[in-house]
From TrEMBL:
<dbReference type="InterPro" id="IPR001333">
    <property type="entry name" value="Peptidase_M32_Taq"/>
</dbReference>
<comment type="function">
    <text>Broad specificity carboxypetidase that releases amino acids sequentially from the C-terminus, including neutral, aromatic, polar and basic residues.</text>
</comment>
<keyword id="KW-0378">Hydrolase</keyword>
<dbReference type="GO" id="GO:0004180">
    <property type="term" value="F:carboxypeptidase activity"/>
</dbReference>
<protein>
    <recommendedName>
        <fullName>Metal-dependent carboxypeptidase</fullName>
        <ecNumber>3.4.17.19</ecNumber>
    </recommendedName>
</protein>
<keyword id="KW-0645">Protease</keyword>
<keyword id="KW-0482">Metalloprotease</keyword>
<keyword id="KW-0479">Metal-binding</keyword>
<comment type="similarity">
    <text>Belongs to the peptidase M32 family.</text>
</comment>
<dbReference type="Pfam" id="PF02074">
    <property type="entry name" value="Peptidase_M32"/>
</dbReference>
<keyword id="KW-0121">Carboxypeptidase</keyword>
Amino acid sequence: MPAYDDLMAFQRVTEALSQVAGRAGWDQEAIMPRGAAPQRAEEMAALEEVLHARRTDPRLGDWLREAHAPDAVADANLREIRRSYDRNRKVPAALAAELARVTSLAQGQWAEARAAEDAAAFLPVLSEVVRLRREEAAHLAEGGDPYDALMQDYEPGGSAEDMAAMFDQMRPRLVALRQMALDGPEAPRLSGHFPKADQLKLAEQIAAAFGYDFDHGRLDLAVHPFSSGSGLDVRITTRVDEADPFNCLYSTIHEVGHACYEQGVDGAYLLTPIGNGVSMGVHESQSRSYENQMGRSEAYCGWLYGRMRDVFGDIGVGSERDFYRAVNAVHSGYIRTEADELHYNLHVMLRFDLERALIRGELDVADLEAAWNERFEADFGVAVDKPSNGFMQDVHWSVGLMGYFPTYSLGNLFAGCLMAAARADLPGLDADLAKGDPSAATGWMRDKLQRHGALRTPTETIRHATGQKPSARPLLDYLDAKFSDLYGG
């Protein structure tokens, strides 16, 4: 198999360089000095030039024609390399490098403009990002839907039509549940002071209990929490509000879900095309399973209530049940990452519609803030008070991640399927969660899904783990049962 062996040796270097680029991105968002931004933008552009050249090297075409797959692993590696090769050849090298440079600069400008509530300072660089992504999408789509073309970066095989159908299926039951909850009894709220150091210490303990390996990772702070890396170096970030410990703790659990997927991939796949998560929808299935269906379950909340009282003393909530209600409070808040499980997908639907209109040229960047504010008030019944609570709250558009947002809701759908299957296999799960021990469920995820990396396509990955075709029904049934119990519907 000389052609396959030569191809994989070449690809191993490409994968390693991609990890280096990812680490530079992590550094930029977590610990890089602000003044380094212009130089980092040039560094990122230089790395992208090298990576693009490798991903479009003519030898790849020769090797792909000559290589034969003796087993499923080789077949999957060839599938992923061929997809990357075909895709990257459509994008001019200069455009790929310019996108890397501009989005590197835009991330810092977004963070500064967001902190200053200065939308006008952000719009010029956002306009440039959107212009470049539209140009890239035109090359990739070759006359087809430009938004679908960009989605392939995050959800191979996905389409805007499929996502819109998913949202149409989910929206009626979500809206009905939300109304029931908003009409129901008000949920308790935590009160008190929650020191930063204590939050981070507890977050580290929880991360370890959920299976995060600190020997191959670290926890840092970022404006927008994220996970980065794969294989032997997988890092996570969180953020801290000393009046709201849930922000830190549940952001951490969420990012641990992502990180455990990457840490859990079979070591034999290290630095190969299948040595990472297969798609962002499948990735999000892990983080949403960890954060919501385990971390916000009544059983786990009972344990966390006692642990938080040990750490923080009086937290303003007098029982495990009230704590569970506080964790799952339903309210029409501004922030997607802090949204309850009913509002979360409505946040995603808003972003999906707006970014699709941006990429298709149906919405100008100059009109984005007004379009966001109008849609948000219509969907949530609340007027946006400032840009950081509106269209500037998420980092995604500044770094060019158009086509990413719908994978969050797809991940919720996948999570519903996975946890229904896990609970069927693990009848003692709630008893374990009540002890603060999610290891049975996280071990199930590692065995059924994580260790396989990108061996299978996204839909096949979920089907293999659950034995069922992905469907929205398990998620909607889970939400019905949970919030009917909480709000008496």
